[in-house]
Specification:
With about 425 residues, the chain is of the alpha+beta class. It has two domains: about 180 residues, Jelly Rolls, CATH 2.60.120; about 200 residues, Rossmann fold (3-Layer(aba) Sandwich). It is about 25% helix and about 25% strand. It is built from eleven helices and 20 strands. A hairpin with a 2-residue loop joins β9 and β10.
């Protein structure tokens, strides 16, 4: 679970056959190479675009963009690679390493640039990732939002000569037929001779992510210590109903402060949830439950008590959520916001709170409007149980038990893209 420092081999090399696809040069400020025909790759084939590599070979600045969807979890999977197959380890490669996004530039075995994210992108969902190299250095993007940057820079022009350009595999003298094969669909790959700005990158994404999603990814990928505040009611508090086991904030703490490796153990996670809290109370006590901790990221899970409190109908709840999001943004550094919908409850035991779906819907609407991250536990629980409330995840029909808290933590981990099959937190079996 530590960050890998070099590209990982995907296994024994298999014969790769060039696949048909559309590659063309665009005039003006458009991409020099734009392969827009989706190709399904099975882990043994690649797309050969070598006829286009001459246009890219001189580039010292520019943008690489790939839209893809994985169908397996491999140690190493290439998205796009430019190389000299006659030389050992002379390549520019944008790939997935254990699901993390990695960008590497090597010349005759010398590593010119090599870094990867902690966030992962091999979850079977559609992702658009990009790397830009410009005057300020190198930056990685996912879903149109920056997730990692470094002052170091190397690009196509750093590797000479370049004679191969491939999607779905890397080729060098040891593996002329390919290595680090991709399994899944590459929907598009494009290269520009200029750095696309933030608006252009968002426009290139079929599924852009919320602004704060990118900012949280940057926090996760950065080595700068950050403080996370998770606030809300008794569910966040984790009081009583976990039966002595970990609450979801505690699982999150273990995942970030230990499993992501050093120096993330210098992050701090503060649980300021208070049993019985409502959105109105959180607005009133915002200074002591959020501001006091100087957060970089703030998570808010609230609403279970609002529905049972006079005067806290849907529109008041909406107004309180907007106030909370904007209060977070007004803090120094403008912290990123996560809104987490409450879980559903047992209608037989809590008939007065069965309309929580409306509160979850309002929270999703506020998150979209305010460009915050939305983690929808309400519908996640129902979807995973045939539309019925999963009573096995509840202690008293309302509060999640130890299994329910782990379910909340895993949903949060997956939505924020740090799920790892090698993680004890992610794969924990709660009795």
């Amino acid at each position: 679970m530590r960050r890998r420092s070099m590209l990982l081999a995907a296994g024994a090399a298999a014969l790769s056959a060039p696949s048909a696809g559309r590659a063309f040069a665009a005039a003006g400020s458009g991409p020099l190479v734009d392969h827009g025909t989706a190709v399904v790759l099975n882990g043994s084939k690649h797309v050969d675009l070598s006829s286009q590599v001459r246009a890219l070979a001189p580039l010292t600045t520019g943008t690489i963009l790939v839209t893809f969807r994985t169908t397996s979890h491999n140690d190493a999977m290439t998205l796009i690679s430019a190389s000299d197959p006659a030389d050992p380890s002379s390549n520019l490669t944008l790939n997935l390493s254990g699901g993390a996004l990695q960008f590497s530039v090597r010349q005759k075995g010398a590593v010119l640039l090599n870094f990867m994210t902690r966030t992962r992108y091999d979850d079977g969902r559609q992702h658009t990732v990009a790397v830009t190299a410009g005057s300020v250095g190198t930056r990685l993007y996912a879903g149109g939002q920056a997730v990692f940057d470094t002052a170091a820079r190397a690009f196509f022009g750093s590797v000479s000569p370049l004679t191969a350009l491939t999607l779905g595999a890397n080729r060098d003298s040891d593996h002329p037929s390919g290595e680090w094969f991709f399994t899944g669909t590459v929907e598009r790959a494009a290269v520009w001779d200029r750095v696309l700005d933030a608006g252009e990158l968002v426009a290139q994404c079929p599924r852009p992510v919320a602004t704060d999603h990118g900012r949280i990814s940057t926090v996760l990928n950065s080595n700068t210590p950050a403080t996370w505040v998770l606030t809300g009611d008794s569910i966040t508090h984790g009081a009583l109903h976990t039966n002595g086991r970990r609450s979801y904030p505690e699982h999150w703490t273990e995942r970030v402060r230990w499993e992501l490796g050093k120096p993330k153990n210098r992050d701090f996670v503060v649980d300021s949830g208070v049993s019985g809290a409502t959105s109105a109370e959180l607005v009133s006590y915002f200074a002591e439950r959020v501001t006091a901790f100087s957060p970089k990221v703030v998570s808010i899970m609230i609403g279970t008590n609002d529905i049972a409190t006079a005067g806290l109908g849907l529109e008041t709840y909406r107004a309180n959520l907007v106030s909370l999001v904007r209060s977070v943004r007004a803090l120094p550094g403008s912290p990123a916001v996560i809104l987490q919908a409450p879980n559903p409850v047992d209608p037989a035991k809590w008939p007065g709170r069965v309309a929580l779906s409306g509160y979850a819907q309002v929270m999703g609407e506020v998150a979209a409007r305010e460009k915050a991250v939305f983690v929808d536990h309400y519908n996640d629980w129902l979807t995973g149980n045939g539309g019925q409330v999963p009573l096995s995840l509840l202690n008293d029909g309302l509060h999640p038990n130890e299994r329910g808290h782990h379910r909340i933590a895993v949903k949060m981990i997956k939505d924020l893209q740090i799920f790892d099959t090698g993680s004890r937190v992610c794969t924990l079996s709660v009795p």
